[in-house]
Amino acid sequence: MKRQFWIKLIGFNLLLLVSALILQQFFFSIPQLEILKDGLKDEEGIIFVGASITKQYASSDTDRRSIPEMLGSFLPDGRKVYPITTEGYDPKVYESISDYIIRQDKRPNLVIVSVILNFFGPDYIYAKPRFEIEKATYRSGNNPLDTLYTRLYLLLANTPKILEKEQEISDEAQIYVNDTALGQRKDLLELEQRYGGAKVRLAEMYLYQFDKDNDQYLAFERMLSNYNENDIPVLLYINPVDVDLGEKNFGEDFRAIVTENARSITDLASRYSTPIIDMKFDLTHQAFRDSDSAEEHLNQIGRMYIAKKLSDQLS
After folding, report:
1. What pLDDT does residue 27 have?
2. Helices (H) and strands (E) in the chain — how many of each?
3. Which domains does the chain have, with CATH numbers?
4. Which of 28, 29, 51, 261 lies 20 to 30 angstroms, CA to CA, from 135?
5. Are 65 and 29 in contact (CB under 8 A)?
6. Measured distance CA(37)–CA(34) in Å, rounded
7. Quick one: 157 exposed, middle or buried, by C-beta within 10 A (0-12, 13-18, 19+)?
8. What is the mean predicted confidence (pLDDT) over 44-66?
9. pLDDT tens string 241-282
10. What is the CB neighbour count within 10 angstroms for residue 33?
């Protein structure tokens, strides 16, 4: 009787494993993970980790290549750049990607990480849970059973309650200009009508009080620690902010607050002996995608500038 039980149990687990492998291969695959695998096979390849800011373009752009694509065209030695980028990626996803990389036998020649100062403000800190499957897949080293269990949990457990709670926290969060609160995020429309859409958006993205205990900053630090402890070369760069529009709305305070917030990142990079290119004030308003609103995405002028700056660093 016991033997039959164990045979059935083993058979069930084998069936579950085969099913998970099939689902992982044909239904749960993550394009960025497949690119990452290819990049790790390339001994001279460069892994480029970033969010939508690396590839969004303006409708008027004649050159719509992403920053990684532009960078690849500038490198004189023919090295290939592997973009692990998608809209909404944040330091929590960055950390899980580093978890995956350090578990592999083959290590990358270089990892470039795109840093958005907006990562560490309320826009990302209070975002709804996202990329849970991707994070579980990276963290587990692409273990299909772990990914399957995560999907089942998100489908069957208390995800709606989690989302409801997160939304409640997000709504109650304050939008600050340094230590002065403009109001709560749930009143965003009213705030935009009172202060102007660009002003409120700039405050939300860049003029927050930097909190080193927030989840995004801590995840970013763990990512750096992963790479540092495993001797994996990393190059960070801080994306430009629209300082022209910022000073138009907030005067000199904008530059001062953004400088102070960026220092938290450059200091962290220094602590882990990680090179960082600080481009936060490098570009004018004309290099951003939308000239009529507060915008962190770039047009081809801005993307080309970053790619060339990175290329110069690597030459």
Report:
1. 43
2. 14, 7
3. 31-125+174-314 (3.40.50.1110)
4. 261
5. no
6. 5
7. exposed
8. 95
9. 999 999 998 899 999 999 999 999 999 999 999 999 999 999
10. 16
